[in-house]
Amino acid sequence: MEYFLELFLGGLTRGSIYALIALGYTMVYGIIELINFAHGEIYMIGAFTALIVSGVLTLLGWNALAIIVIASIVAVIYSAAYGYTIEKIAYKPLRNAPRLSALISAIGMSLFLQNYVLLAQTSDFLPFPELIPEFGFLEPYSNFIRSSELVIFAVTAAVMLGLTFLIKFTRIGKAMRATAQDKMMASLVGIDVNRVISVTFIVGSATAAIGGVLIASHIGQLNYYIGFIAGIKAFVAAVLGGIGSIPGAVLGSLVLGWTESFFTGYVSSDYEDVFAFLFLVLILIFRPAGILGRSETEKV
Amino acid sequence: MQIHHSRKKHFTAWILVLAMVLAGSVLMSCGEAEKPAETAKEAPAKATEPIRMGVAGPHSGDLASYGIPTVKAAELVVEQRNASGGIAGRKIELVVEDDVCKPEIATNTATKLVADEVDVVLGHICSGATKAALGIYKESKIPVMSPSATNPGLTQSGDYPNFFRTIASDDAQARLEVDFALAKLNLKKIAVLHDKGDYGKGLAEFAKSFLEQDARGEVVLYEGITPGAVDYSAVVQKIKNSGADGVIFGGYHPEASKIVTAMRKKGMDTFFISDDGVKDDTFIKVAKEYAEGVYATGPVDTTQNPMAVEAIERHRKKYGEDPGAFFLNAYAAAVALLNAIEKSNATDFDSVTNALRTEFVGTPLGILRFDERGDAIGVGFAMYQVQKGQYVEIK
Amino acid sequence: MFSIEEVKKSFLVSIWFMFLTFPIMVIRVNTIYKIVEWRWERMFYIGIGTFVISFIWRYLMRRKEMGVKKKEVGEDALPLAQRLLQNRRVSYPAIALVAVLALIYPFVFSLYQANIMITALIYVVIALGLNIVVGLAGLLDLGYVAFYAVGAYAYALLNYHFGLSFWVVLPIGAAIGALFGIILGFPVLRLRGDYLAIVTLGFGEIIRLILENWNEFSFGPSGIANIPRPSFFGIDLSLAETTRFVYFIMIGLTIFTIFVVNRLENSRIGRAWIALREDEVACQAMGIDKTKTKLTAFALGATWAGMGGVVFAAQTTFINPASFTIWESVIILCCVVLGGMGSIIGVILGALVIKLLPEYLREFSQYRMLLFGAILVIMMVFRPGGIITSVRRTYQFKGKSNRHA
Q: Whole-model pTM?
């Protein structure tokens, strides 16, 4: 029973990590129906920026708390800027092109950004500073949960609630929902569709950066390739939950995290990824809209 | 009214474009093909023709950090040799080619080196690329020496009489790990993990089979972990649940540090024994205090060897930094290859390979000779442990 | 064009990019040795570079918009080069020239040249296969490399266990490729667009992971070595001779592929694929069997990958799962996209450029993947049709007054 509980908690951690990335993914998809392959790369760039900033500040001898705060803020700003720019370069000109074109462009962007960081920085793994101190009150439970895990749970929940609030109750959220339903119609009623899409990318990328900083700090290292694998997994999770749905992304991520954790625990981690992908295929065959997604009838 | 069928014409029209591209590539390759001819013209007599040493390995991409040090080692050795007059009056020339550690590109690299008429090859770096390239060198009768390809089959299969290496093979490493775990640490239950890669899984397979042959211990868990996964807590739980008192891990330091950190944070003090891929200072920097006590095998420390001291010093002087991975192995390989050419006073296959097998040569790794299969006699592994943030050799 | 307004715009763009690339390009932190390196000169290069690029970008953008307008007006004239080349007196000698060049190539140039040409031709064949799936049928397959792997392992394993020769396995490899195409095709029949892409990606990874993990079957990550090269009626050939032989096998296979794919494209099934690509619903409404059409696209596409894989294994003589990662799929996709989706000559050109250029520009090899990424984006933005846009079969009425007809 203890083993089960530990696997459950392990899956929860893994799921929350996926969720932090999947939230941005699903948000962008919800608005413009594009698999933003470069999302994982934005997450990586966020983490890298935080690493660079904290490295510089550490050498300047700043105090630890200031470094954490400034590094995170700079990472969020830069990731948002990258997200904004990528949209302008690679996706905006393809707004009216076939979906296939935009998808290929996204793959190209992902490849480009990976190699940009690889060439400008390094291919080696770099140690990432531990930003979250061990909390005293967790000491007795250290076998089960670490403070960085607790922070990841909390931030995931906060981001999920924040995004839901943004989409449900704010003006821009309303505009986002309108744009998601029908771009043409939205622009006819006076919504600046380009601006809405830009804001979506900025918000989505900012959440990716938050994820990047937290996860890199939890794992303790990073290199240029961390974004790709995490991005693919997060996308699978978003599809599982029903892409475009904010709670769906979190639920899908947790389901994927548990699936992998229990499969590893009770069967074997050799085929962990094979099982994860098979699970995705099965879900898509039997419930193409995902767990929480609504299946839509095609308009002809 | 006529129906005009434009598609067909359009299709054939583009053939011309294709012709132009082909012609272009032909012109480009003309330029390439002329190079050896020119050098031949400049040096008509064989005696003054330079000796050409090919250097192949990953020089770009994510594995470049494993390949570049070998190029630098070759440059240093050749520079020194040429300064003292070369070999029997012949200068030595390097032909450096990239293989990105990919087998399919390595065959191109190998044919390029063969076409450039190299006499010997220093490389390749990765075992897979080496395997793919060796067949081509074998048929062209070119001796090859790798500083880093540790796959046992390269020498033990007997398929490649032209292959030599200045590093011990993986099974030697696995043997040492298993013996250490059973004899020194007295472990009974061992979990064997690997990263599913060529190197890591190969090592783990050997460790597993050695353990199964030995009555002193048993394998309680044998698993491949997924490299690059965001978290390994499930695998760590599994290790805990299996009751293992030691882990033997085959793979590289990024995964090792994640597993060790997760284990220690869960309060597990299980022994962790790993390989050369983990015996890297980055591992200690990443895993920090959790790295303490971790065992890893690595090449016997020869950095106090006078030749090694000199080689490292010259590297610092020329490139302004400490040498990277496999530098001493590559340096030793370059020295051994050139020594064999000098001793046999020839560059043909039989003389050079014969000299490699019979003549002793002083290198930064010690005094070496190669056995029938191509392994260096006297090159081996030692066990290291992280103590106070540093790898210390355990005698 | 160089008005103050334009310069100001470009200036702002370059400032933005200098800001954007500042941490990653300028600062280099090594957290292991606690070193920070400042590379200010790079910021300067980025500024200049983006300043110039932004002019080119806007120029291309304007041209693209003009092109769209022209199309709307109906002035869809062929570019000058294309019109020039439509002349038979030009194209026939061109075909002859290509044929002669292809024949003498391995005898004139070194072993290395022949070797890289073989690699390039393998890519021509498999890119033409992928072209069926992506270019004609419009199904984005990101796991195409799996079929390539299946072909390569089919030869390696059948040869290892049963000693089957290259010639026997070549059709078997093609058949196994097709079989796997159908296996993948069935579950994804209902999926469209993006979902299809992600599931095929998953499929590609599953095949690679199985090859990596199932040691008893595939010898795991250490791969299979000493795969024999193709035999020539049982005669032992030297390395140079075998390479030439494989070269001619590939030339033959390429011609065969071009012939078949060309015929397929203009066949009933080919038109069904194009109809499916253009509009799935309308295509079904016209009475085309969607299931059959999709499955044949997957199966026929995979066939070529299977065959290419067999030749690949025979040429490299060593294979391991690391050769069949998702990025290999992306590179094959890049060949198709760069050349022109759906256009046969375009895809051939794309594959040759993508495989040969990095070999000739070996000094720049580290920028290869960066360039591929940029190519995918730039092609999609400015020339979605590729270098050579495929032209649909059109029937024009050449009467006196075609405008009022």
A: 0.88
